[in-house]
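User: Reviewer 2 asked us to show a designed sequence for the structure in our supplementary figure. I'm pasting the structure tokens here. Could you produce the per-position amino acids so we can include them in the response letter?
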């Protein structure tokens, strides 16, 4: 039996726990948790579209959902914040923002994409991504801003959460939505190419490096930004505009040239909470009765 030296060691142990919310819910922290790391990404904005009376000018890409984190990041963009203080054994509501709808194809030329919804954990709020501009409809700001089209210029992102969308530079050459890691690209008249969405940001909060929150591509054939941004119509597969990837906060791809499917929706957000490993020994004094018992048992050393 081990010999004890004047004090007792009280082991404090609690396993690391990583909880991913792909939809809204409640996190109840473990009993010994006093602070957590977090990744909170809002829903991406929808891509803009044409209307039947709009002259076939196309829309801008949807902006990525706002990106806030306390864990390490790479690839530029959002910087890590401080860990968040919490109370052990307490419930915390979690809101995971939905992606915004894409701009509709209709006789109404106001066909901008809809902004995504916010994601929230405790005091941390990430803003929904901005909707891409439609033909004659302005883009909107958000975590990352929507791309520009004939309806208006690109919109800004929220500082610390994402970047602005790219601008339309000529007829049919529209801007990509902003990403968490970079601005959306302007349309390029030479060669004629719509702007890709801005790239997202890598996070290793789950133990694997994953990129999320890329902007949607501008119409037409603008590619979505790495990190879940959707391609515009007539992209790499020649099909309709693509939605932002679910649970990445990616912006939706824009639509052009009377594509009756309209702009694509933004991807839903995600909330990931990491409770740290606790593995330490703490000492406390023995009372006299316990000392007597240990001495009698031969387990006490002065």
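Assistant: Here is a per-position design you can include in the supplement:
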């Amino acid at each position: 039996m081990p010999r004890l030296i004047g004090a007792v060691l009280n082991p404090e142990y609690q396993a690391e726990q990583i909880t991913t919310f792909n939809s809204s819910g409640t996190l109840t922290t473990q009993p010994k948790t006093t602070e957590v790391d977090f990744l909170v990404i809002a829903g991406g904005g929808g891509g803009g579209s044409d209307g039947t009376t709009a002259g076939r000018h196309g829309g801008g890409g949807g902006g990525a959902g706002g990106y806030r984190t306390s864990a390490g990041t790479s690839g530029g963009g959002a910087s890590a914040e401080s860990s968040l203080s919490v109370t052990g054994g307490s419930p915390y509501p979690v809101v995971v923002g939905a992606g915004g709808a894409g701009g509709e194809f209709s006789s109404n030329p106001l066909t901008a994409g809809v902004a995504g919804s916010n994601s929230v954990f405790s005091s941390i709020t990430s803003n929904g991504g901005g909707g891409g501009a439609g033909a004659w409809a302005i883009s909107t700001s958000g975590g990352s801003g929507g791309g520009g089209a004939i309806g208006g210029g690109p919109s800004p992102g929220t500082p610390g959460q994402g970047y602005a969308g790219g601008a339309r530079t000529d007829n049919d050459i529209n801007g990509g939505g902003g990403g968490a890691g970079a601005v959306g690209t302007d349309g390029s008249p030479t060669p004629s190419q719509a702007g890709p969405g801005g790239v997202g940001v890598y996070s290793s909060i789950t133990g694997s490096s994953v990129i999320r929150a890329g902007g949607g591509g501008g119409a037409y054939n603008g590619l979505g930004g790495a990190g879940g941004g959707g391609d515009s119509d007539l992209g790499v597969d020649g099909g309709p505009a693509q939605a932002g990837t679910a649970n990445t906060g990616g912006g939706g791809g824009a639509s052009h040239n009377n594509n009756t499917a309209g702009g694509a929706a933004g991807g839903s957000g995600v909330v990931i909470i990491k409770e740290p490993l606790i593995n330490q020994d703490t000492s406390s004094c023995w009372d006299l009765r316990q000392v007597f018992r240990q001495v009698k048992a031969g387990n006490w050393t002065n």
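For the response letter, you might also mention the following. The chain has two domains: 1-12+285-302, 17-276. The CA atoms of residues 224 and 231 lie 4 Å apart.
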